[in-house]
Specification:
Blueprint: E1 8-17, E2 23-25, H1 28-42, E3 56-61, E4 70-75, E5 78-83, H2 86-99, E6 116-124, E7 130-136, H3 144-156, E8 161-165, E9 167-168, E10 171-172, H4 181-184, E11 188-189, E12 199-200, H5 205-217, E13 221-225, H6 233-238, H7 267-283, E14 288-290, H8 299-303, H9 305-314, H10 322-336, E15 340-344, E16 357-360, H11 364-372, E17 377-379, H12 382-385, H13 407-412, H14 422-425, E18 428-435, H15 443-450, H16 453-462, H17 469-485
Parallel strand pairs: 2-3, 3-5, 7-8, 7-18, 8-13, 14-15, 15-16, 16-17, 17-18
Antiparallel strand pairs: 1-6, 4-5, 4-6, 9-10, 11-12
The structure holds acetamide.
Length: 510
């Protein structure tokens, strides 16, 4: 009863029972992860060894499998976790945790629990290479410790990307050594929608190195997003010279919506972007850097004499072409660092950005267009992957931005639909859920919006083959016992309960 459902499961006779004398065998870096996962709840030492009075758990790598694939064999006296790479062994371990009673997920021993694993052979591999969760830490800051917990939850569900939306109109969360005012000024806003309460916070570079390393141990790549050239009010509040009217001081945004402040077109501003990208690439080692590009109004460029002068210098005939020019410059900067650009699908609207990976959010058809234009695509349309939307049409759901995406809608959805040819379909590298935090002021709220819908998206991203929603809902009902053991503030399937409806934000809740 595993989520995401494995590719092939063949039940066998009998059980393996984890006991005080169970031993581990295999390379140290693999057995350490097994000991860390199974030791705290069982209280067993799980030493490395070969004596096998209470059975043996073996881990190894078989390079004939793809790196994230695994074969898990549970026999009465032996468990084998064989991965194509360390990631595959890690995913075998996530499956093993789900074959044990939910108490295995607790961090203290559970007296009287029998640690039985039904004998089985599981052969499993992911459908997509990009299985992501996005978190907007710009609208409401999520403290580092909570971020680590959310990463642990992603790992349990075999996600391999955390897309961290680090900059917003309402807050800049990335510590820059070169531009300290970005966090000194830009990480705090005076209030939120008139609540009179300052809100802020940022990650130091040391914090982010820790987040990256914690995620990497769980085979999750953190993809940072620095949203450019729109959604930059916090940056312009810190450094007015980045904006289109440097004589005007603006504050970090205190309300929501699409905001007209955008970066100006000066070479010094592109130097700023290059400097920030340089700092970001030092901390985030992954191939991809997300440059946003969503919701970038042209009003300020149209209204600025200096922007029009720059357009003439640059040979740009129409303000609508500016974002394309800007994004291609960013792409060139990333290429100097050996990195690839990801952007929201608006970056396709202003001329091509060769080599860009397109993050389709405004609708499935945006991803189809990008795939047809030869881009790799992450399919994340608002319906059903925006988890800041309501989870039902009940009137006792906590307030959200609007829209509805139920757990069933998420499960039923397919990132590769009939209109894509086989070749276009291969351009779809994966899918991702998005949690925007306008109305999610605390990590408790983020958990409420993420789970259990993330369980469904995990299966969409991981599992190949036909779907069976009834089977999924049965497995999900059982899986919620695991989320209970972890203390996750998920939305119960039968609807919100008062204590689960939201966090401790000062704002009155619906
Ligand atoms: C977005 O939702 N503005 C990407």
């Amino acid at each position: 009863m595993v989520i995401p459902r494995p590719g092939a499961e063949t039940p066998q006779e009998g059980f393996f029972t984890l006991g005080p004398r169970t031993v581990l065998r295999g390379p140290g870096e693999l057995t350490t992860a097994i000991r860390d996962a199974l030791g705290p709840a069982t209280g067993f030492a799980l030493p490395s060894g070969t004596a096998a009075e209470d059975g043996l758990i073996e881990a190894d790598v078989d390079h004939t499998l793809v790196p994230e694939a695994y074969r898990l064999t549970v026999e009465p006296s032996r468990v084998r976790l064989i991965g194509g790479g360390a990631a595959g062994v890690f995913y075998a371990l996530q499956t093993l945790r789900q074959l044990l009673p939910p108490a295995i997920l607790r961090s203290a021993t559970a007296p009287g629990e029998r640690w039985e694993i039904p004998a089985v052979v599981i052969e499993d591999a992911p459908r997509f290479s990009w299985r992501g969760g996005h978190l907007d830490v710009g609208r409401h800051f999520v403290p580092k410790a909570d971020l680590l917990r959310l990463i642990d939850l992603l790992a349990l569900h075999k996600f391999n990307v955390l897309h961290l939306h680090l900059t917003e109109d309402q807050g800049w969360r990335f510590e820059s050594r070169l531009y300290p005012l970005l966090t000194e000024v830009g990480s705090w806003r005076r209030e939120t929608s008139g609540d009179g309460t300052p809100h802020g916070g940022f990650y130091s570079q040391a914090d982010l190195r820790e987040v990256v390393a914690f995620a990497a141990r769980r085979h999750i790549t953190v993809v940072p997003e620095i949203d450019l050239p729109g959604h930059v009010q916090a940056a312009v509040a810190a450094y007015p010279e980045l904006g289109n009217d440097p004589s005007r001081r603006i504050e970090v945004a205190t309300g929501w919506g699409v905001i007209t402040h955008v970066l100006n077109l000066e070479e010094k501003t592109l130097k700023f972007c290059a400097d920030i990208i340089g700092e970001v690439t030092e901390i985030f080692p992954g191939r991809f850097l997300h440059v946003g590009g969503d919701e970038c109004p042209t009003d300020e460029w149209s209204g600025s004499g200096r922007a029009r002068e720059r357009m003439r210098e640059l040979g740009i005939g129409d303000v609508e072409e500016i974002q394309g020019w800007f994004t291609r410059r960013l792409s060139a900067i990333l290429a100097e660092h050996g990195r690839s650009l990801v952007g929201w699908d608006e970056i396709c609207d202003h001329g091509d950005v060769p080599g860009a990976t397109i993050h389709a959010w405004r609708g499935y058809e945006r991803g189809v267009e990008a795939a047809r234009a030869g881009h790799d695509v992450i399919m994340s349309p608002v319906a059903p992957t925006y988890f800041d939307y309501y989870q039902s049409d009940r009137d006792d759901e906590p307030r959200t931005i609007g829209g509805h995406n139920t757990v069933e809608n998420v499960y039923d959805w397919d990132p590769i639909q009939a209109e894509l040819s086989e070749e276009e379909g291969r351009r779809v590298i994966g899918t991702q859920f998005q949690v925007w935090t306008e109305w999610q002021p605390t990590p408790r709220d983020v958990e409420y919006m993420s789970y259990p819908r993330a369980c469904a998206l995990a299966e969409v991203g991981w599992t190949s083959g036909p779907k069976d929603r009834e089977d999924f809902m049965r497995r999900l009902a059982e899986h919620l016992g695991r989320l209970d053991a972890l203390g996750v503030n998920y939305r119960p399937l039968e609807g919100p309960r008062p204590w689960q409806r939201g966090g401790t934000g000062a704002r009155a809740r619906v």
